[in-house]
# Entry
Amino acid sequence: MYRFSIGTSTLFPWFPDLGTIHVHENDIQRAIELMPYGKVFRVVATGETYVTIACGATKLRVTPVLLKVIPNPRFSIGDPVQSTESGKEYEVRSVEWHHKRQTHYYLLKSGTRKSSKQYFDDELSAASQERQ
# Structure
């Protein structure tokens, strides 16, 4: 029996090649578009057969068999952050998992410009909330 608490961070290492048995039939297209492998999800609901996980605004109902619990990330999608190196402020656009380092990394954006650099926890701090 699998038990997941609301708010738990998980990985859902699913590819379409694994088949659709692990994703609710109404969520398959969303899962294909998201490509969940490597993305950090948060458990938002649990049920008899499926666990509902969210990555930003995208929610998927999945079977718990593939879920892997990981530590909660320091930042979430939408959080304002600041580069400790440059001092520049960004917004978190994606929280991902670095399998080799076994830790989170973040993809950022500034306005509509997306940064391709992977930022780790020690490279970011919470940005001041004084911006208006």
Summary: The mean pLDDT is 93. The radius of gyration is 16 Å. Helices lie at 28-34.
